[in-house]
Amino acid sequence: MIYLDNNATTPLAPQVREKMSLFMERHFGNPSSLYPIGREVKEILTEARDTVARALRANRTEIIFTGSGTEADNFAIKGVAYANESKGNHIITTTIEHHAVLETCHFLEAKGFRVTYLPVDEYGRVAPEEVRQAITSKTILISVMQANNEIGTIEPIAEIGKIAREAGIYFHTDAVQTVGHIPVNVDELGVDLLSMSAHKLYGPKGVGALYIRKGTKLLPFVHGGEQERGRRASTENVPGIVGLGKAVEITRQEMSEEAERVTYLRNKLINGLLGKIDHTRLNGHPTNRLPNNANVSIAFVEGESMCLNLDLEGICTSTGSACSSAITEPSHVMLALGLPPLEAHSSLRFSLGKWTTEEEIDRVLEALPQIVAKLRAMSPLLKSSR
Ligand code: PLP
């Protein structure tokens, strides 16, 4: 199998698996207990918190572990919205956010908040100046993702951070696709809240974290005990958190070398596809993009058909479309780029990872042109364009 869907999820790194297994074999204590087996676990939890904090250049007390990236997004947005309602009810975000942010904003709209969804340019970048212009006296939160999960475009977070700070407005970024892959420094980015998730960086599923800058006013997300400084009650998912800590430690050590290696393979893939298959375009920014993401639209063929045919060759990719049982809707991100629905339907995402090899990229460059030629020969889309 050739796995090229690392923006969806990553395999567990062996060192992460080993650390989690060892932890589970040796420890079962509740970190809130005062006797030694509990205290030991509490210390292990603190170590993981320190590792995550160091990676983001944050303070240990500013890291809250969550059940996922989705939960971190919900926590940040609802938490700030409800704690700052007396100041205003306006939130600014973008049209290309992950559903974890968009659906949270839709929920808040139904509760009386007002949300501005800023458009993006043809490369998927939001203009900081448009963020500035959207601010009103009622704005309490800006939420812009650091990098998009479908097209890989990296957003100008530091510029938006400056604008948010000048205006005294809280700024959240969804960094689920960036932590462990590109440098993330909360002060340089000027963010007050930042979401991350372990399973995008070779850690386990079902665990994430939210960075909350000291002094940020937000409501607790889960009510109950005093865990996570009373902000997210419930006994901690310690094995998951241990895995997250180890994953952050490894990716941080390997980041610059790995980014260089993967960028080379990604560029080879992009250039190969654009060179070998006519009527193909790259989606997302040509250079300002995640090192591992290549998203292309290949005219006259449907993304789903390419995906299924690649699957028959043992190659795992994904489309930009959200498939439901009967209807395939074009992705909201593709539509936000201004692609006509037919082109939006013909997108295909390759996301490379730590174990992707050059031979695998060569295999894709051999297989996909043949698949596209076969599909185009049968394509009603091509016939109707002639
Ligand atoms: N935000 C982004 C940008 C993502 O890519 C994802 C996962 O696909 C999430 C949030 C949700 O993270 P999780 O799967 O941990 O809930």
Folded structure, characterized:
- With 386 residues, the protein is α/β, with parallel strands linked by helices.
- The mean pLDDT is 95.
- It has helices at residues 14-26, 36-56, 69-83, 99-110, 128-134, 157-167, 186-189, 238-276, 303-312, 332-336, 341-345, 358-377, 380-385, and strands at residues 2-3, 63-66, 90-94, 114-118, 139-143, 170-174, 193-197, 208-212, 280-283, 293-298, 315-316, 318-319, 322-323, 328-329, 347-351.
- The protein contains 13 helices and 15 strands.
- α3 packs parallel to α4 and α9 (303-312) packs across α12 (358-377).
- Helix content is 44%, strand content 15%.
- A seven-stranded mixed sheet has the order 2-8-7-6-5-3-4, with helices on both faces. Strands 9-10-15-12 form a four-stranded antiparallel sheet.
What do the pLDDT scores average to?
Answer: 95
Strand order in the sheet with the most strands: 2-8-7-6-5-3-4
Main beta sheet? 7 strands, mixed
Tally of separate helices = 13
How would you summarize the topology of this molecule?
Layout: E1 2-3, H1 14-26, H2 36-56, E2 63-66, H3 69-83, E3 90-94, H4 99-110, E4 114-118, H5 128-134, E5 139-143, H6 157-167, E6 170-174, H7 186-189, E7 193-197, E8 208-212, H8 238-276, E9 280-283, E10 293-298, H9 303-312, E11 315-316, E12 318-319, E13 322-323, E14 328-329, H10 332-336, H11 341-345, E15 347-351, H12 358-377, H13 380-385
Parallel strand pairs: 1-11, 3-4, 3-5, 5-6, 6-7
Antiparallel strand pairs: 2-8, 7-8, 9-10, 10-15, 12-15, 13-14
Helix pairs in contact: 1-8, 2-8, 3-4, 5-6, 8-12, 9-12
Bound molecules: pyridoxal-5'-phosphate.
